[in-house]
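Write out this protein's structure.
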Amino acid sequence: MMRKVKQISFLHVLLSLLFLGACDRNFDDTPGQIDITLEEASVSNLQAMMQAGELSAVQLVEYYLNRITEIDPKLHSILEINPDALEIAQILDLERLDGQIRSPLHGIPVLLKDNIDTDNMLTTAGSHALVYAPPPPTDAFIVRRLKNAGAIILGKTNLSEWANFRSTNSSSGWSGRGGQTRNPYVMDRTPCGSSAGSGVAVSANLAALAVGTETDGSVVCPAAMNGIVGIKPTLGLVSRSGIIPIAHSQDTAGPMARTVTDAALLLNAMVGVDPDDAITGESEDQLQSDYTLFMQSDGLIGKRIGVVRQLFNSNPDLNDLLEKQLDILRQGGATLIDVEFTIFRELRDAEFEVLLYEFKNDLNQYLQQRGGEYQSLEQLIEFNRENAELEMPYFDQELFEMAQAKGALSNLDYQSALQLSKRLAQVEGIDALIAEHQLDAFVAPSNDAADLIDLENRDSGNSYIPSSTLAAVAGYPSITVPAGFINGLPIGVLFFGTAFSEPTLLEVAYAYEQLSKARMAPYFLESSTTKDVKL
């Protein structure tokens, strides 16, 4: 349903036409123009151009829509375009003419993962089961925050269906609704997931910014494999209301951007206390008014960083690249200390048990509040069986069925697993090593070079490194930053720390980014193999 937009006066229309006419020119031919193309332009670049009258929000939206039309048929990263985007952009341009600038995101297009509620677009988690469900009655809390900041919701991105919690045999970035998302650097390689579309779209310059969601790795993995920055905030820093859940003890939305600064700007607009999500109240005293204040080029000086070498693997190319990144950290003034976590196996088992219980409970609550034909996990399982050609042409729904077999959250097995997972990740894991070595943060590889997409046989898992798990289970923050390439495929490094350590992690990540300068835009290379991959 089309959302009613603000009435525009004749005078404002006239001013707008004059403004847009002045903007309709070649940026390179006009003296005094800002010397920058829109591709790879940062948020501050875009704002400077708009403030100088060299670009309008309407033009910027049109630019991204044209790129989506031209490029996204190759990538399958976008599911839907906001039908109101251009009208909203025009309103924001008029506000700018009146001297009303809401925030540094005023007029900046942002894409949302398709598990985040919007009142004028579908919210489906990539499944046909929710295509005809009633639209969410209101925007998610974080969407309202973004709109209030002047961001333009450009559309919805593809994802691993149900945030990759349907099958143990899935292909990252595939959904029944959107098909297979492709890595923009090498088309037959995985984009990782579950926020695949958000990572790919930002990397391919289909929008300035995007929002993903993470339970364990679903922001930082696709950010790393697509050569961008991703932030997984501390649990409770960002509201979870209006987001299709996996597990409330780990779920959070997070910013995805091409630079640390842009990710911090998006985080500014997302954080806040939500009366409908009680855990956000616990973060009220920890909220920062502006996370870009921690963008300091000397942010590595004096920092003590724990190196988690057990998360390196047997790939010599990866290990060589990582050693070079450690040298960069040292050159920036950090002291590096090798550390080891001893709780991984037990932690993963406890985490999995928690996710199964919480998924059934949390998803049932969401579906019942949403309304429609399918209001329980059990009904979704039956829908998938009845529509197997649409929903299960490549893999099944083992995780759905395992979760359905679990009981209520009052079950002792769940309570024990939850307590164990938090104790291992927090008390005996991250916090213990921070105290022992007086650390500011940890560093580990985010990923190895992306695997081939193989819908018939699932992801091989060779490119996945479980560095996200400790912070994810603990509910602590992590940030991935581009670190370089192996065979033309992006590699990221992950920084993580204790609860609400976003300021420290941003200092470290920004200073590292300024020294490494590893981000490079994709060139839409052809397939790296002659293997026939069904996409």
